[in-house]
């Protein structure tokens, strides 16, 4: 199963919320390697997700531009 950014952030949050609490301050103790592993996973998937988001944005802009051009043509025809 491929993890996604939100799931990894949830996992980090869970580690922080459930970490061993210190007697003073708001400090907690969590496993360094566990956190670093999640950070590495985030580094791996963020570029892919950013590329997908960029592709989606470009596609949506093309659809919007096409719709705007069609609307402009309809208005121009109606004005004639």
Task: Provide a compact summary of the structure.
The protein has helices at residues 5-17, 32-79; strands at 20-21, 28-29.
Present the secondary structure layout.
Blueprint: H1 5-17, E1 20-21, E2 28-29, H2 32-79
Antiparallel strand pairs: 1-2
Helix pairs in contact: 1-2
Write a structural description.
The protein is mainly α. The chain has 2 helices and 2 strands; from the N terminus they run αββα. It has helices spanning 5-17, 32-79; strands at residues 20-21, 28-29. A two-stranded antiparallel ribbon has the order 1-2. Helix 1 (5-17) crosses helix 2 (32-79). The longest helix is centred in the last third of the chain and has 48 residues, at 32-79. The model has no long low-confidence stretch (mean pLDDT 88).
Give descriptors for this structure.
80 residues; two-stranded antiparallel sheet; elongated; mainly alpha
| Strand portion | 5-15%
Largest sheet: 2 strands, antiparallel
Morphology call:
elongated
Cα gyration radius (Å): 24 Å
Which sequence of SSEs, written as H and E, runs from N to C?
Answer: HEEH
How many strand elements?
2
């Amino acid at each position: 199963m491929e993890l996604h950014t939100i799931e990894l952030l949830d996992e980090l949050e869970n580690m922080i919320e459930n970490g061993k609490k210190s007697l003073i301050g708001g400090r907690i103790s969590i496993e360094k390697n566990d956190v670093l592993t999640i950070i590495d996973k985030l580094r791996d998937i963020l570029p892919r997700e950013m590329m997908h988001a960029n592709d989606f944005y470009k596609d949506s802009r093309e659809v919007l531009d096409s719709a705007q051009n069609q609307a402009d043509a309809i208005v121009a025809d109606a004005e004639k």
